[in-house]
Amino acid sequence: MTQSTASRVGRFRQGRMSGTRPESLATWRVTTDDAHVADRVARLLGGQPQPNESGGNHSDEVLTERESVRILMEGPDAVTARMLLHDGRGVVHECDGSQFLAPPQVKGQPCGCPPLLQDRKAVARSGRGPMPSIDLVFRIAADPSLGEFHFQTSSWNAAEQIPHLLEELERVEGPAVCDLTLELVIFTTKTGTSVCYRKPVVTVLGGPGTVPSEAPRPTASMPAPAVPSVPRTPARRPDPSPPPAPEPPHPFDLDPRLVNRAAQALGTSGHRETIIAALSQAAETRQLTAELDRLRDHVKRIAAITGQALQAGGSSS
Ligand SMILES: [Zn+2]
Fold first, then answer.
1. Under 8 Å between Cβ of 45 and 69
2. For residue 62, what is the enclosing H or E element?
């Protein structure tokens, strides 16, 4: 499950940095150093090639018009999934969740990570355990000759999908046609706050002979998955409202160090997930305050009515 990075012509991203402000995107953003690749991506997936001003090592970017892109993955070898823990100097724990993958002298030995994902998250949250590090390599199905692209994520949601994804890729035997989708997740917190965000999902569709290389063009809305995915704010009841249209990028003014510290406290991976979890908690607090205010008004009104009733009773007797 390792690949060379030399042959990759571009990278798919689900967000971008604008100065110190991370932005979550509703459609895929592709970065590359090759102007021809940028041009071709724009023709295939919509958008305009432009200079990449979000930082990183690619010169060009295309903010595509697609939330889902049909791709080709070359079997399970197209997936690299590891668990990594960094300290200030570098990687101090690299495993597959049960065994060390590196350094060579401990490779294959039990690493001591808890067997359950939930417990691994808790250890990672405390800063003592590794986080997922996932890399997917693929070609755009509509033009495989363009070259290999990749997508990296440290999302626990994505980590949960990996065993199933590997099984599905194994089953296809050879290149698999898949949809790489920024899936809209909407759920309601226990205090009734609606939260929505996008998570990357790979859906294996079949072999190249059995599936068209072009997905139908996306429509304005897509069905909302009912499964809650942020573990700290589980859904208690489904959101009755229909899913909103794809949301525009939301800019935030944030110090990346603060976000990293918040991620440790909240047990989240990635800036986007951290911000959503933090906002959800802030919204819950605000909602609680509003409920207390309403309760206080009720008590005042009851007190006033009782006072009037007592006065009326006193004057009539
Ligand atoms: Zn481990």
1. yes
2. strand 60-63
Per-residue pLDDT, 258 = 55
**C-alpha 289 to ligand 1 mean position (Å):** 41
Task: Determine the distance separating the centroid of ligand 1 and the alpha carbon of 131, expressed in angstroms.
Answer: 9
Answer for the pair 309, 51: CB distance below 8 angstroms, yes or no: no
State in Å: Cα 88 to ligand 1 middle: 18
**Ligand 1 midpoint to CA 156 (Å):** 15
SS (H, E, C) 101-139: EECCCCCCCECCCCCCHHHHHHHHHCCCCCEEEEEEEEE
Residue boundaries of the structural domains of the chain: 8-283
Question: Would you state the pLDDT for residue 54?
Answer: 83
Average pLDDT for runs of 10 along the chain of length 317: 68 89 92 97 97 88 97 96 92 94 94 92 93 97 96 92 95 94 91 90 91 66 40 41 43 50 56 55 52 65 67 53
Q: What is the DSSP letter of 279?
A: H
Contact 11, 31 (CB under 8 A): yes
- CB under 5 Å of ion ligand 1: residues: 95, 111, 113
Tell how far the Cα of 133 is from the centroid of ligand 1, in angstroms: 12
30: Cβ–Cβ under 8 A, 6 or more apart, which residues? 10, 11, 12, 13, 38, 41, 45, 61, 62, 64, 149
| pTM passes above 0.90 | no
| Cα of 247 from ligand 1 centre, angstroms | 37
| Both structure tokens of 106 | 């401990």
Distance separating alpha carbons of residues 97 and 82, to the nearest angstrom: 8
Q: How far is the CA of 104 from the centre of ligand 1 (A)?
A: 15
Residue 21 has what pLDDT? 84
Dist. CA 196 → ligand 1 center (Å): 31
CA 107 to ligand 1 center in whole angstroms: 11
